[in-house]
Design goal:
73 residues, mainly beta, 3 strands, 0% helix, 53% strand
Length: 73
């Protein structure tokens, strides 16, 4: 079978909330909100059997989701 394929492996989205007005003061802070997703699945495969070429006889890795906040004070 053909093994050509396109997968979504990893997506990372983040947004930074910086306080530029207080760069030199004691109240300086940086906050980042982020979301990660891994092993989201197959977008396209060349074989007609619907098999994953990397895992033809086993289960593919499970999807993983992460959200979080990073803060520096």
């Amino acid at each position: 079978l053909k093994a050509d394929h396109i997968k979504i492996r990893y997506i990372n989205l983040s947004y930074s909330l910086n306080n530029p007005a207080s760069r030199s003061s004691i109240l300086r802070h940086d906050i980042q909100v982020y979301a990660n997703a891994a092993n989201l699945g197959m977008l396209w495969r060349a074989n007609k059997a619907g098999l994953d070429p990397e895992y033809p006889s086993s289960l593919a890795p499970s999807r993983k989701w992460t959200i979080g906040i990073r803060a520096n004070f």
